[in-house]
Amino acid sequence: FLYKNGPALYNTASWGQIGKGWDWLLEHHGVHCADRWVAVGRTHGGCLQGEPYPNERLMNLGNANWQRYWAEETWANFWSGPSPFGEGADGIFADNCGYRMPWQGRWHLEGQADKPDMPTDYTSDGTHVPELYRAHIKDFHRWVVPWLRERDRRLVINFGRMARQPENWLELDAEPQPVFAAMEEGAFVHPWGTLGRQGNFVFWSEQEWLNQIKTMRQLRRVRALMNVHGPVVSEAEEIRRMDATDASGNRAWDVLWYALASFLQGYDDVRQNAYMNFTVWGYSRFYWFDEFDPKYLHLGRAVGEMQQVNGESGSIYMREFDDGWVVVNPTRMDAIAIPVPRGKARIIHHDNLEKTDQAPQVDAFDLASHRGIVLLKPGRRIGNEDN
Asked: What pLDDT, in 10s, does the model give residues 69-81?
């Protein structure tokens, strides 16, 4: 899928413009034009520039002509001509396509950062009205999905906020013609907020984590793209970066296992309802870890649903598979003396993934806060030799 900012925003950078360019758009569909495509500031009456990304301008998403122009020009850019740039791609990944207006409260008059403003299109009596924007973006989803399908292409969107607004995901999933997939940009672990700026992986609360797991599990048509990322203190640029920790001492390999164990609690291995990635390289680099290769890690089919299990202190969540249990602790408390569900099992993690036979069999285990492991059943293999 090929990246393009969705129609809520226009990218004025040379690499991001579409169609005839920003200057043409201002001349024919600018602030004072009858067919206005740009959003207009309520206070200063001009175009709105984003604070986080100065190359972005807010658009009047309620204008159907602008939506159509975005789709047609994006299509032409990727798939027109004798040697199309997008040949082989299955569709468009459209950024900033959630039900919430991008960068709410962080817009200002174009070129004048000292003049904050808010769009007239999504404001009433000086107050932002989120329902207006929500209706416009839903209208866009509803017509552009079949429009792309007619051209044998699909739409993937950056949707987000599964941890705090899971109901939006279920609403998206219930659309008559839903998008092919939607991304949760901060799945299980993210790099945002004060802690993130201080160089830490940021873990959602247990309830927010549960929101993500349960929402994933309920999706019937839309696929969730669970994007896990965060910072480490390291100058390494290659795979050695995974050996490093964040500012609080969380090793990247351990965070990967936490994310993977979380993902498998909500994954539907029949319908394939979700995908997961992990990076400590920002969006510049990704690795196919051994943990993603069934040769090294493959537990067969899920046997049941996620269960919460208490220990002598604390609790964990686990889910049974043919070959073992995937276990995760999303709480802020270490879990002590958790019983193995039936008999004994070997505790598997990144450091013994290739030497699982050396792991002792135990009938109980401890699991630190924000960690994930596999309990391998006796006589079973960690890879796909036996399933």
From this structure: 999 999 999 999 8
